[in-house]
Amino acid sequence: MNKMQVMDEQNRSLTHSYGIMKEELIETRKKYNECRENYLNTVADKLADEERREEFNERLKLQLAEKTKEVSYYIFHLLCIIMQSFIYSCPFITAH
User: Model pTM?
Assistant: First the structure.
């Protein structure tokens, strides 16, 4: 009977240890899942930020190209006006 009591006590002790280990495993799993979720959310946020920056840069490039084209148009017309004034003001150049 003494051997049965020892084995019964060992069984209770092992069952208790198993319960503690199982709870710790569940807690560790929860913490891992929370960390993983936070990491994935952070990566998703960073990717979204990068995409927004790229879209913003593309809009700036288009605006810059448009303004450059507009300024070039005005410079060309100013040069045309200056050349016309020069041509009409020179007595040795005859306008046709």
Answer: 0.57
- The first and second tokens of residue 85, run together, are 């004034």
Distance CA(21)–CA(15), nearest Å, equals 10
Q: Does residue 96 surpass a pLDDT of 70?
A: no
Strands of 6-92 (E only): list them: none
* Tens digit of each residue's pLDDT (9 = 90 or more) over 42-53: 999 999 999 999
Tokens (6 digits) for 82? 């200056």
Q: Which residue has the tokens 């503690």?
A: 20
pLDDT digits (tens, 9 = 90+) for 8-25: 999 999 999 999 999 999
Q: Going by C-beta distance under 8 Å and a sequence separation of 6 or more, which residues neighbour residue 87?
A: 93, 95
Residue with tokens 């995409």: 51
E-assigned strands of 1-96? none
Q: What tokens appear for 29 in the block? A: 């799993």
Phi, psi of 95 (to 5 degrees): -85, 140
Rounded to an integer, what distance in angstroms lies between the CA atom of residue 8 and that of residue 3? 8
